[in-house]
Amino acid sequence: MARCADAGCPHRGANLGLGRVVGGELECPYHGFRFEGGGACTLMPCEGRDAKPSRAMCLRMHPVREAHGFLWAYLGGQARGPLPELPWIPGAPEPDPHSASVEAVWNARFTRVMEGMMDLHHFPFAHRRYAPTAYTRLEPYEVRVEGGIVRSTGWLRKESSPSGTGFRFDIHVGYPGVLHLGFTPRLQGVVVCTPIDSEHTWISARYHQGYLPVPGLGWLTARLLLALEFQLVQPDDYRMVSTSLPRSGSLEHGVMVRADRAIVAWHRLHEEALGAHGDTAVAS
Ligand code: FES
Ligand SMILES: [Fe+2]
Predict the structure, then answer these.
(1) Which ligand is nearest to the CA of 57?
(2) Atom 4 of ligand 1: nearest residue by CA position
(3) In terms of residue numbers, what domain contains 237?
(4) Number of structural domains found in the chain
(5) Do residues 22 and 152 share a domain?
(6) Distance from C-alpha of 89 to C-alpha of 54, rounded to nearest angstrom
(7) The pTM is what?
């Protein structure tokens, strides 16, 4: 069963993420203090087996649940009532034998990472090493917001080609950081972005492929596609979002155009959420 606690050890602040689980308890990597699943300290080796840890020597715990192949923690402090719904997108694929995942940590702010994830018209420029450079025109491009989900569909085409030709993309975003990406009818992605702190963002991507739905090989194919994406394509995005100025994206930081409509819609939801919950809901 998953548990979630603040990373700083109550003793002297060591990162408990570097610790280990011993006999179902979490052991701090620095001086070996142990904590049970509810957060209480059960052992302070330096003080002896019979020592009674003070009440202050306990972990700050957060509600956590497991769903859709991810762990979801609520860090918003003491919830007054039921916890918020998970920002999952109905219809997004669940983990299966033909899907594979990778994780990355980017030195970029959450708002910039989310802008980059929703952006379609950067392909022929930021990815010019791999993407066809003539497909610059984003049209048609439709964006609608349903509940907390920003749904966008767009075609990237050549300027001289008719509307609705070229490459179609579907990007759905469950605010704040869940994405369901439709690349081709047989290749879909689920990406979850989470701010680690004000400067870093954790990205987890899962690819689902239907080209080779064969046990074992299905996973391998999805894993290879992800490896290509994260080795070749995503470094371009990282370069863009980590160096954009100012470091934070917002409606005030930029002159948005029609092709940025999904980004504008997301920022509106973000402003609403920050207004409603103060700075505890989502770091920006
Ligand atoms: S800092 Fe964790 S036991 Fe000392
Ligand atoms: Fe990109």
Answers:
(1) 1
(2) 31
(3) 99-280
(4) 2
(5) no
(6) 44
(7) 0.90
